[in-house]
Amino acid sequence: MKKHHIFLILGILFSCSLKSQVQQWLNYTNGDIVQALMVEGNFIWAGTSGGVVKIDAVTGETIFYNKGNSGLPDNRVISIAIDAQGNKWFGTTYGGVAKFDGLNWIVYNTSNSCLPENVVRSIAIDAQGNKWFGTGYFWGDNLGGGVARFDDITWTVYNSSNSGLPDDGVISIAIDTLGNKWFGTWDGGVAKFDDVNWNVYNTSNSGLPNNCVQSITIDSQGNKWFGTDGEGVAKFDDINWTNYNTYNSGLPDNYVHSIAIDNQGNKWIGTMNGGVAKFDNVDWNVYTSSNSGLPSSWVNSIAIDSHENKWFGTGDLWYETFNGGIARFDNVNWTVYNSSNSELPDNRIPSIATDAQGNMWFGTSYGDGGVTRFDGVDWTVYNTGNSGLPGNDVGPIAIDAQGDKWFGIGMKGVVRFDNVNWTVYNTSNSGMPANAVGDIAIDLQGNKWIGTWSGVAKFDDVTWTVYNTSNSGLPDDWVTVIAIDDQGNKWFGTWDGVARFDGENWTVYNSSTTGFQLDVIYSIAADNQGNKWFGTGNGVARFDDVNWTFYDCSNSGIPCGRVNSIGIDAEGNKWFGTGDAYNPYYPSPGNGVAKFDGTTWTVYNGENSGLPVNDVMSICIDVQGNKWFGTSGGVGIFNENGVTVGIKEEVLPAACDFSIYPNPSIDLITIEGFQTGTIAIFNSTGKLVKRDQLSGATTLIDIRHLTSGIYFIKMQVENTTMVKRLIKL
Question: Virtual CA dihedral for 201, 207, 213, 219, nearest 10 degrees?
Fold first, then answer.
């Protein structure tokens, strides 16, 4: 009996140790908006809309860092600097600044330091090693921030109240050879600071043509070059001003986001929508996505390496088309580098579904989105250019018993995809009452229930039946969400409460009939106990067919705000996605995901987890228990026991079995069972991390370079493929 107790204790200890090693979060994002570039020897560091990318300029290999696999506090990285010790400093949109020494991450934000704002638009490091952070939120309103100086111990903040800084939105910084700091502001012009005195240059007292200064660069003669927001480039030699714009020069666009200067003194000027201009002080040459290898004519950042290669970070921020990336130009040839760790065409994911084969389907909104299928390894994007989709704004997704996918397409109706053919249903060719689709649900009889802003349409593949406020008990014609319970009742969420339809009778529940704030319904789910859960604009309501219980941030652990999505896992835990953002790069702060086990609430958000952003638009739970969260910043996947996507372990017959030991392992493993064949090791996301050949009856494999986590060893022997799990401690 004692032996059994000892084994149980050891098993528990090992299980806890393993749980601490596995990767619980994984992010898939679109990183096509590249706002920051920095050169470090043969490596390029890029700040993107999906995290940080490290590019080996020699081999082209990339390493991605995001909230799922690193200490990065925010996937939207908008500024980068590297200090003399090789530490990387990443400024983010909402997470403050992160220091990365190649192994460890330290985050500085408004909660744990004197950083005045968590939006860090610019970073510069002076000769004494002081870090200067330009802060200030400016999407619509400038909430203030100013400049923070950090000497690794003490913080000093300069703002418009305590210094000569003219504006608290500091979006660009440069330091000249005399140690003067030049700060470009959102609406106050340029400030020069010599550590004692301030001098301000603006449109009223100088030749600066615009008070919004997006970029600053200083040439070898000490001239300052200022990129402005709408009035081109200004050159300042400390006495005279010279302005270049689309009217008096070859500058292709007056909105200048970035400037860099090469060893020959050529100025490379990145513009908002005119590409990049090369200026040799006499002639102008313009490179755009139409006449060069630039992936986008919107150029946010420029860096020049020691070989005089020019690196351009591109991507359309204003129109949110996510069609940019990173390009290198060696003065002859262009090379484009992948800046995303997925092929998601857009970071806004309003819908997720999984089919019988385990493929994940993601609806994306706006821009060049469409719908994306992911089988765990490969991505397939369907859009208006390569499929029968009538629009790229893909909302709800439903999958029927035959495996056909049904997509709601913005204002363009519904599309059915049978994996070969596309069929569009709209008001012109069917009984659809409106082309704006809120949700789609499919009952056990195969009927499709389609919620629109003009009621609900039932479609049995032949006949259309429409229910609206004129001919049924629907309380409102704008049907936002649909769910079907175990008894076959249809639950319709509307802008005026909920309607239950049992096929004959309608029952309405809203603020008037329940006493709760039950007006606009954003999400519905039914659990195994028969409870219905309704996501509202300020919490969630549970209905057991008799009693109503309302949970909000005043009486429970659910975060305040709108509940967009609800998922229920195999253990009966409820997962609530909150938030209301639509802008992918500057979303309003949401509240994350709340898990409720019936007693305890657990909140996962951007501050305490690997959730990409706090605005959660959709939830899907797969058969492995992975929770897929569609956010306004990409896809976050969570599994308490370790995320496993892509490669799966197989149960092997004895004749095809092979052995791996020790397993778990820290450094070396031995493989036995076959003398010839190939070995491929994949991580839990399906990425190939090592390939080798069998070298006899036993093969020794070195795994010391692998990070801790779950891996899969795939062995190919002639026509037989075998897969086993490996745990790296």
Answer: -90
